[in-house]
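Q: I'm a student working through a structural biology exercise. My instructor gave each of us a protein and asked us to get a predicted structure, then write a short paragraph describing it. Mine is Isochorismate synthase MenF. I'm not confident about reading structure output yet, so if you can add a plain explanation after the tokens, that would really help. Here is the sequence I was given:
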Amino acid sequence: MDNWQSIKAQFIAQINAYQSVEDQEIGVFRCHTTMTMSLLAWLKAQQHYPQFYLHGREGVKVWAAVGQVRQFSDVSLAAQFVQTHQLTLLGGLQFYGEALFVLPRLLLEQDQAGVTVTLFVDAKQFEQDKQIALACLSTFDKQTALETVKQTISLISQKANQAEWCHWVEQGLEKIQQGELSKIVLANETCFQTATPLAPTDLLAESEQYNLGCYHFMFAESKQRAFIGSTPELLYRRQGLALKTEALAGTAFMGEDAQQNQQQSDWLLHDKKNEYENQLVVDGICQNLQPFVQHIRVEQVELKKLRKVQHLRRQISAQLKPDYADKDILLAMHPTAAVAGLPQSAAKQALRKLENFDRTWYAGTIGVMGPESADFCVTIRSAFIKQVENYSQLCVFAGAGIVEGSIPLLEWREIERKAMGLVSLLQQNQL
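A: Happy to help. First, here is the predicted structure for Isochorismate synthase MenF. I'll explain a few features afterward.
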């Protein structure tokens, strides 16, 4: 910890010695250490909000941040700030498009070379902002041990029970048969009560161990409420003008039996309904990207295997045209047919009428947007954790793509299976 205390001392000294420069809007202080640590354990010890965490799907890069110096509710203004100041923003879009991007107070970026720590201050109101920055640094060198999450939980409510949700599916199928839609993705929200308070950082750390091959994310707006998840799905990743995305749709079960898993894999690869569902997502992504990119390439179908389910996936790559940027890609792609349906606008309108809850961040997108690169995941396999006196409320989301040939009861079983990705980490036999 000596190294972290040294960084803290350096930051305090730099802030105290700082002289604002005319026309400078943001003061930037940066340190690097070759030491690494659990950024979730670091976040657990911090007292400032909002808090942000993103563990890249390849497992190499991790971002953690606390506090905010700037906030944007318009993706165009956020992208303009990134290019003007050459700084990285964290945040994303909720399902129906509400944007939230922040320039944090403290940003930690960890990779194989160590951790780069950046402290931001408002140079325009430096004397006032200086005190907030120093207060945020007070716990910088602290970590709080992550704890086991095994405990008794009880079901509180579901937005729709099996019969109600299957009726939603039947209504969606009617719209498909009438030609209004070719696909709609219906979701459900299930809420549980924990026996004792549940720290979001603890549950996410547990998920990192078991839900491999995923992005792991957390956005905590306050100590009382956090949105977390472990999602297999990339929205897009940009490096310069090179763009990578994917169509992740079509689902089969995964369990403890290797032979049964292989049978499910073989079935999934040859099932016409799932193949059609995946192709719709490919077509939707390519159509939405077409005005902004060149040289779109779609790879052959493959399997994405997870702990509870496996999916069909086609990887897609393209080259961004020079005149376009992240704001264009975000607004064009989100939400994809994998989480909303097709046509995009009609599917969103239908979901507002069919579903009896607001998805907010579920099936939205969260990530990092910088001048040279961007990385955004699709926030499925996710949950809100709300602190209520001496217990927590865990509200879990899961959805399924409905196309011609979908069977309501089978789709219900699919969303129940998907929801277990997080719930089963707590306890398997008290549901």
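A: Here are two points you could use in your paragraph. The chain has a mean pLDDT of 94. The two ends are 41 Å apart (CA to CA). It's a good idea to check both against the output above yourself.
Q: Great, thank you!
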